[in-house]
Write a structure and sequence with these properties.
Elements lengths: L1 E12 L2 E12 L3 E5 L6 H9 L6 E6 L2 E5 L2 E2 L7 E5 L10 H6 L9 H11 L16 H14 L4 E5 L7 H18 L2 E6 L2 H7 L2 E6 L2 E6 L1 H6 L4 H7 L3 E8 L2 E4 L2 E4 L6 E7 L4 E5 L7 E8 L5 E7 L7 E5 L10 E6 L4 E2 L3
Parallel strand pairs: 3-9, 3-10, 7-8, 8-9
Antiparallel strand pairs: 1-2, 1-4, 4-5, 5-6, 10-11, 12-13, 12-15, 13-14, 15-21, 16-20, 17-18, 17-20, 18-19
Helix pairs in contact: 3-4, 4-5
This protein binds adenosine-5'-triphosphate.
Adenosine-5'-triphosphate binds next to strand 2 and helix 1.
């Protein structure tokens, strides 16, 4: 069931077309990530959903209710939408209990019990109830902000780069914890981030924005393995692009005869993710071999640069484990796992 529908939403600030006819559906109970480079319109889209901005045209519907129809809109505080932002925006003069309890009606007889439930839900120790925000770590502050937003029992939770101020390890833990908490509470969420790895790992649906347009939306796997175009491919991760000629489901390219995911025929560009390519040391002078020109030992993930025989292409970069790592100068052949992607034309 669709919870949120955005239909042809556009927004212009002076000369800047911040959003250009964006349409997106969000399924109830799911996790969507909106990702895109700086200035692509992510925050504007989030603010339009939240009701802090109105679209110039287009509609926003939540659970069958029309929230915005062009500039006519339901005010933000009546939308039943929760927000957790990068700063957390806790009230500095209130302790944790006060912050979490903020959204719960003052006279409610189960208020204290509810505060404790929310604290447990975000996996914070009860000893923290009397602390002020400045006595908490960044991750703890974000948990309090999440508990406070959950206290209002929102229909939809918007997460505006909530992890970006945290260290890498903590970021990952918080991302998993937030996904767990929202799943347990059955709350649909939309995460805005410029970090593509975060988007891929958090979401069931990833929506890629570029220059105010929705380039592609779909499952993380489908976007990563079958991006619409070169730019999206490179935005979502490292990629090896090669010219090829396709005949009957296979591409002839510098790597040999490679299976592809498309019915196209003729001259195309194919894409492989570096982890689809395996480097095998092979001193026989087979066709489609190459020579290792550089090895970057990176611990768990190493990068091997291979210059392919008889091709005027820059060396291709392959991610590999540190086990059986070839050396510079070794003759190698490259084995492909899965299919190469052909960009739609
Ligand atoms: N209030 C405003 N007035 C004028 N221009 C604005 C305003 N808000 C946003 N913009 C412009 O609209 C475009 C989209 O901005 P937006 O903040 O939505 O992008 P973003 O993808 O969230 O970027 P970032 O990742 O840097 O936060 C940008 O070109 C921005 O400069």
């Amino acid at each position: 069931m669709t919870l949120l529908t955005i239909e042809g939403a556009s927004k212009r600030y002076g000369q800047v077309q911040a959003l250009d006819t964006i349409s997106l559906d969000v399924t109830a109970g799911s996790r969507t990530a909106v990702v895109g480079p700086s200035g692509s319109g992510k925050t504007t889209l989030l603010r339009i959903i939240a009701g802090f901005e109105q679209p110039d045209s287009g509609r926003v519907m939540l659970d069958g209710e029309l929230l915005a129809d062009g500039p006519a809109a339901v005010p933000a505080h009546r939308r039943g939408i929760g927000i957790v932002s990068q700063e957390g925006a806790l009230f500095p003069h209130l302790d944790v209990a006060g912050n979490i309890g903020f959204g719960i009606a003052r006279g409610a007889d189960n208020r204290d019990k509810r505060v404790l439930e929310l604290l447990d839900m975000v996996e914070l120790d009860r000893g923290m109830l009397t602390r002020r925000p400045h006595q908490l770590s960044g991750g703890q502050q974000q948990r309090v902000a999440l508990a406070r937003a959950l206290g209002r029992e929102p229909r939809l939770m918007l997460l505006d780069e909530p992890f970006s101020a945290l260290d890498t390890g903590l970021r990952e833990n918080m991302r998993k914890a937030v996904a767990r908490v929202l799943q347990a509470a059955g709350i649909t969420s939309i995460l805005v981030t410029h970090d593509q790895a975060e988007a891929l790992s958090y979401a069931d649906q990833v929506a890629v924005l570029r220059d105010g347009r929705l380039v592609q939306a779909g499952s993380p796997q489908s976007l990563y393995l079958a991006p619409r175009d070169r730019e999206t491919a490179l935005f979502l991760g490292d990629a090896v692009m090669l010219p090829a000629i396709i005949r009957n489901g296979h591409a002839d390219c510098a790597l040999g005869h490679v299976a592809v995911d498309s019915e196209h025929q003729g001259k195309v560009e194919i894409m492989l993710r570096p982890e689809q390519i395996r480097v095998v040391t092979d001193s026989s002078e087979q066709p489609y071999g190459g020579r290792v020109v550089e090895v970057d030992f990176g611990g768990a993930t190493c990068t091997v640069a291979v210059s392919l025989d008889g091709v005027a292409l820059p060396p291709i970069l392959i991610k590999t484990s540190s086990v059986a790592l070839p050396s510079r100068g070794d003759r190698v052949r490259l084995e492909i796992a899965g299919k190469a992607h052909v960009f739609a034309r």
